[in-house]
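Lecture 7 notes: from sequence to structure.

We start with a single chain of 314 residues. Read the sequence below before looking at the structure.
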Amino acid sequence: MKTGLIAITIACCLTAGAQAQDAKRIALTYDDAPREDTFLDGETRADMIVAGLAAAGVDQAAFFITTDGIDSPVREQRVADYAAAGHVLANHSDTHPWLRELDTDTYLANIDTAEDKLAGFANRRAWFRYPYLNEAPDEAKRDAVRAGLAERGLVNGYVTVDTWDWHLDSLFQQAKKDGKPVCMAALRKLYTDMLVEAANFYDAAAREYLGRAPAQTMLLHENDMAAYFTADLVAALEADGWEIISADAAYEDPIAAVEPDTMFLGMGRVAALARLAGKPGPEFTYLASEGDEIDEAFAVTYDVTGTGNGLCPQ
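Now the structure, written as tokens:
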């Protein structure tokens, strides 16, 4: 750990302005587009997400594209449709590998393949987001990939609000596969509640340990939960005092300039910097990061057994 980096980080955070310290600002960013068909087919899902963002007044979200398969006309069109709606596209690798499982050169080549496939799309941004947020299997590989990204003119498309929205979606997919009834009203509430809680968790951590509230970037996925509940999520965030901002605006925050010198990177940049500033790692816990708690909430809140709990019509 380098104490100089911590000092620079805290200094940059403290000098960003009073307005930034007071506001709660967040951008929506979606990983793994374009996903395969699930309960919703991919085209329907993408159309619903675009419509949900438009209905909520979100002019620009970011979609981090996994490019394997986007040479298919249908998948290529889905990605193009996101850009046509005003949203920005960025690199999420070609095949979504774990950095820990590849050597540095192979990993960077995977990123290069994705860059080549994305070259013809509009609204590109020079951002790369690590699959699984796995950017520090060891210090040497972490630094080698960081150097490789810099050589390519790519910057880290980091997150600050980590969520397990993918886990809730997997429970929904399994329930539908098993033919169990799901109460969509209750599912909507759980989804929005857990993501608002996650946003507030990282806001509080930043204010306490970094001395200000940076512009947040929320980790979401191009999944059925997003398709059904994007507008509801925006409404819930705004009701809680959050301003939805563009991904461009979020990545202009001073926090974007700091690459944390830590191995604690798998929960995003605020978590990494707060850890360097003294926040104990075991305290990074909240509903949207706890699989067992999400399982329990899903089982209790939804009528997946058909027994009824007062929340769903029988």
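The mean pLDDT is 90. Keep this in mind for problem set 3.
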